[in-house]
Amino acid sequence: MNRRAWLLFVLVSVLWGIPYFLIKIAIDDLSPMLVVAGRCAIGAAALIPVAALRGTLTALRGRMRVVAGLAAVHIVGPFLLITYGETHISSSLTGILIAIEPVVIALLMANSEPITGIRTVGLVTGFAGVVVLVGLDVSGDRWGLLGAAMVLLAALSYAYATRMVQQRLSDVPPDALTVGTTTVSTLVLTPFVLFRLPDAGAVGVDSWLALAGLGLLCTALAMLAFYRLIALAGSNRAGLVTYVNPVVAVLLGVVLLREPVGVGTAAGFLLIVTGCWLSTRPVRARAEEPVPVG
């Protein structure tokens, strides 16, 4: 990857390690549905003027059906799953479970990048990490298991969305694509929260600030950077941002929310990261055999 791609990689890694912490704060006073709808609306409102001034919105003409599909699998579905999932599990565990995404991307891209023996070992190792996390950290807690399952389903959705962007929408400017997906998501979710708004006086300042951060930083800015990263580095490498996300999520959860980190969490995290690294290693082209002369 070139320097710009690396800068985008670091930026997205940090920005997408923060949401789990902010979601935990926001859902103290706001419903999960309102948190998701609110961050989408804030993200769209921030980016529509930017895209309009740049004249990139015309790139969405004739593409809205695909953009709506992307909004479903990259925003509406996973955002809701993660936000509701965090009502049952910690923000640090959520961030770690999302790290399985590169393994899923490797499977989805198997046709273009074959799964070698090393990659197979990586896939098995990553899956073992998930088993350790779910088995040790939330065993015996049916609501914890439900929350973990929701987050894992969100990781699957994220992986499919990443592949979808590379294969079908890589030619759409990132600002226009982000406007399209956040606007569609806002329109879909608003009816579900419009008549269930909380009493403003019952919502703390921390929750409002967390929601603003989710919309401006973790949605608008992060998606702009991520879509551009996919265009520069491809979906497999872009998906590797989830290597760093858990580190940020765990640090914020432990330091600021005082969430516990057990042996299962540490072991599962190491297995998942190792598995992801092995399963997404680039395939070396086979050296051409010399043609015998004479």
Q: Could you please describe the fold and organization of this structure?
A:
With 294 residues, the protein is mostly helical. It has one domain. The protein is built from 13 helices and no strands. α3 runs antiparallel to α9 (174-193) and α9 (174-193) packs antiparallel against α10 (205-233). The chain is globular, with a radius of gyration of 20 Å.
What is the structure about, briefly put?
Helix 3 packs across helix 10 and helix 7 (117-137) runs antiparallel to helix 13.
Characteristic terms for this protein:
Permease of the drug/metabolite transporter (DMT) superfamily, transmembrane helix, 294 residues, 0% strand, single chain, 72% helix
Structural class: mainly alpha
Helix and strand element order: HHHHHHHHHHHHH
Through-space gap between termini: 43 Å
Note the overall shape. globular
Low-confidence stretches: 285-294
Strand content: under 5%
Largest sheet geometry: none
How many domains? The number is 1
Q: What is the mean predicted local confidence, pLDDT?
A: 82
Total count of helical runs of at least 4 residues: 13
User: Helix share of residues?
Assistant: over 70%
What's the number of extended β-strand segments? 0
Rounded radius of gyration (Å): 20 Å
Membrane topology: Multi-pass membrane protein
Domain EamA: 6-134, 146-280
GO cellular component, one term: membrane
Family: Belongs to the EamA transporter family.
